[in-house]
Amino acid sequence: MLAKRIIPCLDVKDGQTVKGTNFVNLRHAGDPVELGHAYSEQGADELVYLDITASHEGRKTFTEMVSRVAASVNIPFTVGGGIGELKDVDRLLNAGADKVSVNSAALRRPELIDEITRHFGSQVCVVAIDARYVMDRGQGTMDNEWLCYLNGGRIPTERMLFDWAREAQERGAGEILFTSMDHDGVKNGFANDALRRLSDSLSIPIIASGGAGAKEHFRDTFLEGHSDAALAASVFHFGEIKIPELKSYLKSEGITVRI
Prior knowledge:
Blueprint: E1 5-13, E2 16-21, E3 24-30, H1 32-42, E4 47-51, H2 56-72, E5 77-80, H3 86-95, E6 99-102, H4 104-108, H5 111-120, E7 125-134, E8 145-150, E9 155-160, H6 161-170, E10 175-180, H7 192-201, E11 206-209, H8 215-223, E12 229-232, H9 234-237, H10 243-252
Parallel strand pairs: 1-4, 1-12, 4-5, 5-6, 6-7, 7-10, 10-11, 11-12
Antiparallel strand pairs: 1-2, 2-3, 7-8, 8-9
Helix pairs in contact: 1-2
C-alpha cells in the first residue's frame, strides 16, 4: 500500500500565512517560509502554498517567497493562486515549486489543464476544487449535489463536483484537491462520503481538505474516505496537532505513513 500523505496548507496573504473558517474571518498564523521549514523538519510529506489574493503585485511577492521556500525545505511543495496561463506555471516551477494547483482558471477555461499537462506533465498539475453541498436550490436536478465555486469560494458555478473531477482527470490532472467549504475550519472531520465517491470513481490521487480537528479525523478520511492524502492548516499552524504525534497515531491505527 502506498503511504498516506500528511500535507500542511499555508494560505498566504500579503506575505503572511493566514487561516479562516468557511473561507472567511482570516487571522495571521506566522511566516510562511519559517512554517514550511518547521513542517519539513517535523515530517510533513508535502506542503501546499496558496496565494489567496494573487494580485499582479502579489504574484511577484509570492514568487519571491516560493524561491525562499524552495531553499528552506526538503520535501515537495505545491503552489497555487492566480495561475491562469503557462507562463505563470513556468514562473513558479522555475522558482522551485514541484507542482501547481489550479482552480478558478481551470473552471473558466478547462483547456488550461490540457496545456499544463502537455507542457509539464500530469505530475505537475493539481486541480483544486472548492465545493459546497447544496440540499435544495429549488431546481430539482441540482438538489443534493456538490456545487463548485470560483474565486476562493465566493462565486457559485453550474459545475458539479463529481462531473468536474472526472473531466479534470480526463484532461490529464495528476491529483484532485477537494475542499469541502462546509467543513473548512470547522474541525468536525472531513467530507468522507464525497471523498470516498471521488476516490472510488477516479484513478488519480485524492487529497482531502476541510474539516481536520483531531487525529481521528485523519484516520477516518484514510479509512472511510479512501483519501490518498489529508491536508490541514489551523490544527498545524496553532500547534493543536503535532505531525510526529499524528503519524505515530496513524501507524498505531494500521495506516501506512512515512515516519
